[in-house]
Write a structure and sequence with these properties.
125 residues, 2 domains, 3-stranded mixed β-sheet
């Protein structure tokens, strides 16, 4: 892997605590401009996936680029990520099922075969 380079970082607006945080930030995180991040995005994604702290400066904000774990699609995800309760999820599920039944009864739903036929017809023109 080619050596990483460091882009000049913005100076803190206030002295004191901001300066201490800024100094800690520069010791632990690679900071990039948007242009540099776009030019070498694959490189920075790989570095972030390997656990390196990478940040992109966007105006006055610093956006961290880091790997996140993906949870299985079950109710625990909705509970953890959105604070949904089992009752609210059951209510949502029954609402979606009712909407599905109404649309099916009204003839608004299409099978995969019907969608493929429409696409083939559109591509033939």
């Amino acid at each position: 892997m080619a050596p990483l380079f460091i882009v000049p970082r913005p100076r803190p607006a206030r002295p004191g605590l901001d300066k201490a945080l800024y100094n800690r930030h520069k010791d632990y995180m690679r900071t990039l401009t948007i242009t540099d991040a776009k030019k070498n995005l694959g490189r920075w994604l790989k570095a972030a996936a390997q656990g390196q702290e990478i940040a992109i400066v966007a105006g006055a904000d610093i956006i961290a680029l880091r790997k996140v774990e993906v949870a299985a699609l079950d109710t625990s995800y909705a509970e953890t990520e959105y604070g949904a309760t089992p009752e609210s999820l059951a209510h949502l599920e029954s609402g979606v099922a009712a909407r599905y039944r109404r649309q099916r009864k009204a003839g608004k739903l299409r099978s995969l075969a019907q969608v493929e036929a429409v696409l083939e017809k559109a591509n033939a023109h």
